[in-house]
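$ fold --in a.seq
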Amino acid sequence: MRSPATGAPAERREGREKVTGTARYAAEFPAPGRLFARPVPAGVARGRVRGVDASAALGLPGVVSVLTHENAPRLTEPDDPILAVLQDDRVPHRGWFVALVVADSPEAARAGAAAVRVDCSAEPHDVTLSGTHPDAYEPEEANGGHPAVRERGDSRRAFASAAVRVDVGYRVPPLHNHPMEPHASTAHWDGEHLTVHTSSQGTTTVRDVLAALFGLAGERITVVAEHVGGGFGSKGTPRPDVVLAVMAALRHTGRQVTVALPRRFLPSVVGHRAPTLHRLRLGADADGRLTCLDHEVTTHTSRVKEFVEQAAVPARVMYAAPHSRTAHRVVPLDVPSPSWMRAPGEAPGMYALESAVDELAVELGMDPVELRVRNEPETEPDSGRPFSSRHLVECLREGARRFGWERRDPRPRSGRQGPLLVGTGVAAATYPVMVSPSTAAARALPDGSFLVEVNATDIGTGARTVLAQIAADALDVPLERVRVRLGSSDLPSAPLAGGSSGTASWGGPVHEACVRLAHRLAAFPGPVPEHGLVEHADTAGSADADSGYARHAFGAHFAEVAVDTVTGEVRARRLLGVYAAGRILNARTARSQFVGGMTMGLGMALTEGSTVDAAFGDFAESDLASYHVPAHADVPDVEAHWVEEDDPHLNPMGSKGIGEIGIVGTAAAVGNAVHHATGVRFRELPLTPDRVLTALLESGR
């Protein structure tokens, strides 16, 4: 009997192309006469454009045009206001694009952009978030459609009467996605048809947005994202680069135009994780059972559009507490619009919650693993629905076994090694299971091979490979006989790669179409005709049907750190993650995703952070020289494992998303390890040497 393709550690199908440099990204589609365009950002934090002098730029060799709000093509008002570029004279935040220089080379475009003179009138601005900001308000919803406030019982009274209490605040700074491939788009009008290559997590969405903006029929647009060099949420929806590229191509019909955003522009125009201020109040009885759990979050949004980081939502899922209040407040400021960043809501929210749980364990004198196990809920606390599967306790137990947790001396500062203080920490993780309707087609060809078509996007996760594995099993054929086409809006429509929902959304119709094709082939008389046999599938009505179950992935993170008492430097020696994420469809790519998420969580804990300059109105850390992401040397030992989980309430594959849960608990595990090492509780990220050393000196340790 043939071994199943799913679950096997199949190699990435595009791996050779990537390592040999033959994989082409959005800015790498050269054509004769190609033009390059570079945006000009506003130089004030808030105001109006009084005038643009492009004469010097137009006099430079190679510069062919300059677009401003006075001569750019008019757009239909977009649903997403950040796409209304070059439509009026307003400047809602520093970095907002106010002109576009089009030239025959990237160098000429850069020189032309530097030569454009923009006269702006500055208006008073406010970019500073505080918990007492007078403009803070309670929104109707947080991101994802979650109610801003949820209450059960009387948490205020329960907290006042609790035997053991923790009342603490945490702060997570703005964070930036910084994918390896910056946002870029190449647009070309060929007669009546527009073709766009763009770095996006979903080309169906890009096509639909461009059609609405430019008043075009969708069939006149093809959007391609053959390879995408990372996104982490920032490429989940169209960004200004694709609109500007189409604008310039419309102005210069018949010539290709490429817009590749400089990395220093990204923090201002492609979204960021908004800063979050957290207040946690946990009350427990003497045995460690939670009696109340309150999580209140204050965050910022732009004045362009409302985006509320749903950081209090994970607290509605995690622990059994009869009394609870989770709430969000938001402050509109003159800042760039925040957006999705890997595990939005869960990453900052679980950092605060899992740090507070660790503080409660210290107050109780209880092992932090056992405290979490003791408060395991029977049903989802917020909704009361049964979990489709929940194996968090197994993750904690297996992680503790693999990590050697039983050898841990719980006393802070018990692990001194010369000038180094060594400590260990633990945190739990959760991420919701999400799935959207999708379509797919499967074709049997006369040579015995099969072609699967779906407009999925491979953002580096190995989507081509895992979809081929799903198809091979549904067809009951060897993996090498299946080809997959994806990444083009001309293919069967599919939702974007985001929310750890890609494989679950695309895999359902791929499986269904292949099962239908297999049944048809079994009953088909004679050989496959020259044009092949095709079956289609559409999961609308099933993938988006209401479920009676609360569906989430869970995990446990363990960390060992060494803190240098001379320099304040924190080094992660070991990271371990154990996950319950449904059926693992490809062991190789799954481990890569888990490790990648943990590495990003390590950066969140130790190196990544951004500040908004109050006077200048911009992010001070706008490139990889000042915004520090982890390198291989920053953690010598990182392991990812999973427990077997059979969940029949998800999709035909039994899979859950894995792209984001790896980041969720890492920062808290590292922070808790630093407390164990030093005896000092740090409540603001990142744990940089200056912050750590100052606290050690102030504590006299």
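$ fold --in b.seq
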Amino acid sequence: MRIQPREQILGIWKSMIGACWVDNEWQWGGVRDANSISDSEQLLCLLYPATEIDIFALHDPDRIEQDVQSVLEPIGGTTRIGAFVVSLLASYIRNNSTEDGLPIFAGGSYLRSSEERPPTEIQQQLEIVDSYSMSLTVCMAGLRFLRDYRSRTCPGRSTDQVDELSEHLSTRLTAAMTGLLRSFVVNTVRPKSTEGQKILGMLNQDGRTEQTVLAGIRTNLERVRARLRSDVTLGQEASVKELEDEYLLFECGWSWGVSTDASPVDFVDSPIATAAGIAEPRPYLYFTVVALDGINDLVSPRAGELGLLDETQHRLAQALRTRWELTQRYWSIVARFGEERWPLEDIPWQTSDGEQSDYYSLIVSAVLIQDLVQRNASDDDLTRAVAIFDELAGRGRIIRRPMRDDPAVALHRPGVLLSLRGTEKVDEGPMLQWQVSDFSAVLLKRMLQAARLSNNVAARDKLMELSKSTMDHLHRRILRDGAVGLWDDPDSAFSDEHRPTETKPSWYMTERVIECLVVADRTYREPPPNWPDLQAVARVMLNIAEHRFDQEMLGVSVDDYSDNRVALDSVERYIDDARRLIREDAATTFVHTLDALRILDQLVTAQRDATRNP
């Protein structure tokens, strides 16, 4: 199916109103009980498109589009929609703050036990990077909305409420940024250790000697290592110090929460800046991508232009930007290390702790694409990335039919389980796990981002076809009963019986589909690629059209004001427009040139007929 962001986002909004707006009250929670992450995901399903895409803006009653008004009609007229969003933000802050007003980032019902006994109440209060990252995006979007909404509200009680709510969101934003900062980790390992051998085994795709591989790694990562040592000390003083030993291998990214070796952030006045961490100081690929996505919303040019951050937040943002840049660069280099086959092309990816999964290959691909978005990606990089996405779509049974009892289905149901090391030391409880089942949504988002970069016709076409197939897969997973039109019922995509097995919405999955649609909107709004081959053909056609036009003008009198001269004037306009667009829009140049040639052909035919029938 085609990916149509406007229609599909409005469809999700309509389904959300039907599922969540009950008796004039907003219902939080879904397939899992409400928690700080689920609430953020649920709110972002509405707030993210409303602040990222102009046609979905909700802050100004006079600008709300007619189809948006129609979908949101159950909550009231256009004058009530802005106040409705304000009330949702206020409810979100109340639900995820302590009585003292301190932000809560607990994993709650999203945390699973690895044993038969359930997590303890204290364990369910553990703070997770997912919550920091999602909260960061919510707060940035919320502050942007409130700023625009306030400028269109008369001073008084309403503006006082908006100002107070903005302060709460800003407090939560500072805490989320601090949590992300202190969850960043640098893990150093000796080459001869078990972890070191796993890293070397993954990177050595050419069968070279260990010393050759080590020398290559040191050279390729030299700048990343140097910047980590010099620029990444805030919150990570102990871990980066070990980078002084250049013979150690290292990896960087985000753990699942504040790490055990995180140092205090002395300029932030909040408990999260000094609280002891319990997460193992080893990067998790999943949490690394989640953190990168949240920071991307923080450091985007649009966010910087809005002036939403105070001095403390600017300082935190700069520190996070540095980690964001270095982490993307690290994994991009590692993914493409070597001279022949990339390590990333050796699917499945193996982590330093020995875990293997197609999901990890997808996550490393996601970081690679994000890095390529920030730099000038080569056609070779993108062409090879297309082949990886194609392979992952097949292995994930998105473009291939699953077999009976197919183990690949486990990527989607129940998903990959991540052990949160360190949680077993809390309150004598079990080790907790984190379930990730967003394989198809992550694949779709990164393919759409890659398509936006590609100047290769075949690569872009393949990416868009794969994207449509993945959207087909996701469409089959829409709930058909209960919260109709939302996600997620993966059984429907892998079973011929089409019997609904889930009725409550998964905000985890629905929010990720929203992210894909926002990326699709950005991709479609970019000018189409000006492919060199099409430009060459358009230039040849334009030269032919100009030559034929010049030939026709040789036989036209200066005093000619006939229909023939009017037609030639229109030909000249088409040629001038085509010449003006040749460098930036070869396709439109081609169309204008064809229009000019068509008129010229009609004139020649008319002259021939007139000669035959005097």
